[in-house]
Each structure stands twice: as C-alpha cells, then as structure tokens.
Design goal:
This protein has a four-stranded mixed sheet, with no helix packed on it. The chain is built from one helix and four strands; from the N terminus they run E-H-E-E-E. Helix 1 links the parallel strand 1 and strand 2. By secondary structure, the protein is α+β, with helices and mostly antiparallel strands.
Length: about 110
C-alpha cells in the first residue's frame, strides 16, 4: 500500500519511537559538604538539562553523606570511601529521563 497524502485539514502522524535527547555531565566537584554548594549544583544541572550526571570527589564519609538528589534528580547511586572523607562518586538521573534499574550489585567495601 503506497503512502497517500492525508485529506485536507488532516496531519500525517509518524509511527515509531524517537528517543529523547540525553545529555551527560561528568564533574569533579571537590566536595559537597556545604548545603549552598549542593543547591547551586542541582540548579545548574537542571538549567543545563543534564539527563545523567556523573560526580567524582564527593568527599563524604560512609553513612555521613547528605541526600544529594531532589525532585529533579530523584534517582541516584552513590559510593563513598568507607573510612575517610575522600573520593566518592555519584550517578544521578534526571526525573525526565526514563530509567529502570534491572539489577544492583553493591560492594560492601565502598
């Protein structure tokens, strides 16, 4: 069957899936212990429309990390140094990004 022009006043509707545009950010943040710095980071990431964010050098102790995500970045995965306030990483997903975790493996040593 050949494609015909739609009748007058009608629109052709595409069939298929167009994936959303993803933007990735990777930042060495040199610590986020100051609440204002965390808030500023989250606002800037949202303004830049970052879909997936990779953060290094979080500088939190295991168990002492404040909640980094908010309603705009509600899904996050974290790893901290178990004994010292150094290193640490986070991966955040924007709430507008379709993400489904199918499995999780955690290293008990961070």
């Amino acid at each position: 069957m050949a494609d015909a022009d739609p009748p007058s006043g009608a629109q052709r509707v595409g069939v298929g899936f167009t994936p959303a545009r993803l933007t990735y950010w990777s930042l060495n943040i040199r610590g986020l212990n100051i609440p204002e710095k965390r808030s500023l980071l989250m606002r800037r990431l949202w303004a830049a429309r970052a879909s997936v964010v990779f953060l290094q050098e979080m500088h939190f102790r295991q168990g002492d990390a404040p909640k980094l995500g908010d309603k705009r970045y509600s899904i996050g995965f974290y790893a901290n140094h178990p004994e010292a306030k150094k290193a640490g990483v986070a991966i955040l997903f924007a709430s507008t990004t379709q993400f489904h975790c199918t499995g999780l493996q955690a290293d008990p040593q961070g």
